[in-house]
Design a protein that fits this description.
single chain, 108 residues, alpha+beta, Helix Hairpins, SH3 type barrels, 2 domains, 5-stranded antiparallel beta sheet, 2 helices, 5 strands, globular
Length: 108
């Protein structure tokens, strides 16, 4: 059995292929009413997308909107790999990590 490559070892092309496959599987799972399977595949696609983003584009102490959660904002404290660590604004001030692909620059 061939061992799967980690996202960190994949080229941009391979990551894009993986994201396409995951989105297709997620669409099928959603159509079949497999809610848990859909959620897992959606999260995998978000993680794969994180490896396509240059972490240097995410700035510490900046506020970003959370993709897929309109009106919710996240203040980045620091980065560790493809994860941004920080706090949700207006939340319970518990530090958490989000994949950088979930962060959307706010419009001025």
């Amino acid at each position: 059995m061939e061992q799967e490559k980690r996202y960190s070892q994949m080229s941009a092309y391979e990551l894009q292929q993986e994201i396409s496959q995951l989105n297709e599987k997620a669409r099928k799972a959603e159509q079949l009413g497999m809610v848990n399977e859909y959620a897992v595949l959606e999260r995998k696609a978000i993680m794969a997308k994180a490896y396509l983003i240059d972490p240097k584009t995410i700035k510490s102490n900046e506020v970003y909107e959370i993709e897929g959660d309109p009106g919710t904002y996240f203040k980045v404290q620091y980065l560790n790999g493809v994860f941004a660590w920080g706090f949700r604004l207006g939340g319970n001030s518990v530090e958490e990590a989000l994949p950088i692909s979930m962060l959307k620059e706010m419009k001025e």
